[in-house]
């Protein structure tokens, strides 16, 4: 079949296997040619390793100097009569191929990371492939829903207290769409914390401690976002910010637990980037398009792989101690929050409207990165060629 890009609002409905291969290949190329991770972890578990920061960390750790073997958990759909499947499915498939060609072990576990069954499956895989221990756990889930013991929680992206007006760049039709978000109820805040806060991260670390799967010096990281004042009403001061505050708190209790293994736990604050999750946040896309414009002009723009390679080579490894801020957070959002950068972004954002956002901001770059995430928009992939999708059925594990 010939696979075309189909976007529904800001959600991709199709993915191109060969474009996903190209996206993984390009990230590997970056990791191999960058400053290398020294004395990095050899046995890594990534929870949410099929796209975004999780995939980039997997690539950096395997190809960026550490030569890590990896187990990744993700929740992706393969091809079926219902559709071609998700980009993460093909990313898993091709990451495994490239890693195995390089002589590394790469295990893909498809399952619900929140469930005890998946945790037990991972413990078993650690026994089988890692001689029973891990050296690093990357927690990189972005989810809208959590099922647990018969309960269901849905995260919402809403402000807390006051309504917030913002605009979204609708990728389906390249339109600017204004909307006003009503404040979250107390139940919605709690549900978002349940899905995106630290509870499940802690459940993973507890499960791994109980099964004696934590190696000496083992570290764990989870990703967070703070951002500038422009995004605070919808992010930091909203439901997602509440969940991230919980995640930061959890990092402290996990740090105490991992101190028993000479290890540590850190929430890592990243830069705003286009991922499946962030394109979805109302009011966020004009900021990202403005940020990309300014950071590209300044030569400080980074994508997921650049962020992860920098994290491992300057913060988590290659250093005597892990540098943190006064809230014990690792900060790799420093280029984004640079005052000069923010001054220009704020000025640009103030000018943006529905008729000029394509000219003034980097909408083209924003859209291209979104297309790339789903395996589209690569010059060296022939999208007119038929893809034999049956080749990919059940092949990613
Ligand atoms: P993403 O959507 O690219 O990746 C999410 C991963 O979670 C995928 O591997 C997906 O399969 C997996 N996943 C989701 N639900 C699952 C489930 N129930 N079971 C197993 N796997 C599941 O997301 P992205 O953007 O890389 O986000 C990762 C983390 O980074 C999140 O905590 C996010 O808040 C944080 N972050 C994102 C930023 C951004 O601008 N994208 C900025 C700063 C932090």
Automatic annotation (TrEMBL):
Q: What superkingdom heads the lineage?
A: Bacteria
Q: Which organism does this record belong to?
A: Vibrio ouci
Q: Where does substrate bind?
A: 225
Q: Which residues bind NAD(+)?
A: 48-53, 75-76, 112-113, 141-142, 244, 273-275
Task: Tell me the pathway.
Answer: Lipid metabolism; fatty acid biosynthesis
Identify the residues that the record assigns to the Trans-2-enoyl-CoA reductase catalytic domain, covering every copy: 84-317
Instruction: Note the Gene3D superfamilies from the entry.
Output: NAD(P)-binding Rossmann-like Domain
Give the Enoyl reductase FAD binding domain ranges: 324-387
Cite the record's note on assembly.
Monomer.
Print the keywords alphabetically: Fatty acid biosynthesis, Fatty acid metabolism, Lipid biosynthesis, Lipid metabolism, NAD, Oxidoreductase
Q: Which GO terms describe its molecular function?
A: enoyl-[acyl-carrier-protein] reductase (NADH) activity; NAD binding; trans-2-enoyl-CoA reductase (NADH) activity
Q: What is its EC number?
A: 1.3.1.9
NCBIfam families with a match to the protein in the record = EnoyACPredFabV (NF043048), PRK13656.1 (NF010177)
- Nucleotide-binding is among the record's keywords: no
Query: A single GO BP annotation from the record?
Result: fatty acid biosynthetic process
Locate the active site. Answer: 235
The protein here is known as Enoyl-[acyl-carrier-protein] reductase [NADH]
For this protein, the record's SUPFAM superfamilies field holds: NAD(P)-binding Rossmann-fold domains (SSF51735)
Keyword Translocase tagged: no
Per UniProt, residues of the Trans-2-enoyl-CoA reductase-like NAD(P)H binding domain are 2-81
Which residues does the annotation list for site: Plays an important role in discriminating NADH against NADPH? 76
């Amino acid at each position: 079949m010939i696979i075309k890009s189909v976007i529904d609002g800001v959600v991709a409905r199709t993915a191109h296997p060969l474009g996903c291969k190209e996206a993984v290949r390009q990230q590997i190329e970056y990791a191999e040619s960058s400053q290398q991770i020294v004395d990095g972890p050899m046995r890594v578990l990534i929870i949410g390793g099929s796209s975004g920061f999780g995939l980039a960390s997997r690539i950096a750790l395997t190809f960026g100097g550490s030569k890590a073997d990896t187990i990744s958990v993700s929740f992706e759909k393969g091809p079926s009569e219902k559709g071609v499947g998700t980009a993460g499915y093909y990313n898993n498939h091709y990451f495994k191929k490239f890693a195995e060609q390089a002589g590394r072990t790469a295990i893909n576990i498809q399952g619900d990371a929140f469930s005890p069954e998946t945790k037990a499956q991972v413990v078993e895989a650690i026994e089988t492939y890692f001689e029973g221990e891990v050296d690093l756990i990357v927690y990189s889930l972005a989810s809208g829903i959590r099922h647990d013991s018969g309960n269901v929680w849905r995260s919402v992206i809403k402000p807390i207290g006051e309504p917030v007006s913002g605009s979204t760049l609708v990728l389906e039709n390249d339109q600017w769409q204004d909307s006003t978000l009503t404040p979250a109820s107390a139940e919605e805040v709690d549900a978002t914390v349940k899905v995106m806060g630290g509870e499940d991260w802690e459940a993973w670390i507890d499960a791994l401690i109980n099964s004696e799967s934590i190696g000496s010096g083992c570290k764990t990281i989870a990703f967070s976002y703070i951002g500038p004042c422009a995004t605070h009403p919808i992010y930091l001061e909203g439901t997602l910010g509440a969940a991230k505050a919980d995640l930061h708190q959890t990092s402290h209790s996990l740090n105490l637990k991992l101190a028993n293994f000479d290890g540590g736990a850190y929430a890592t604050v990243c830069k705003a980037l286009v991922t499946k999750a962030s394109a979805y946040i109302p009011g966020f896309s004009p900021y990202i398009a403005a940020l990309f414009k300014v950071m590209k002009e300044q030569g400080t723009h980074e994508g997921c792989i650049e962020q992860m390679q920098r994290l491992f080579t300057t913060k988590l490894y290659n250093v005597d101690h892990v540098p943190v801020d006064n809230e014990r957070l690792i900060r790799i959002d420093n280029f984004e929050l640079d005052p000069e950068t923010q001054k220009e972004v704020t000025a640009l954002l103030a000018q943006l409207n529905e008729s000029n956002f394509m000219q003034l901001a980097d909408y083209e770059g924003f859209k291209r990165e979104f297309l790339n995430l789903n395996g589209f928009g690569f010059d060296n992939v022939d999208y007119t060629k038929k893809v034999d999708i049956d080749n990919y059925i059940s092949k990613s594990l």
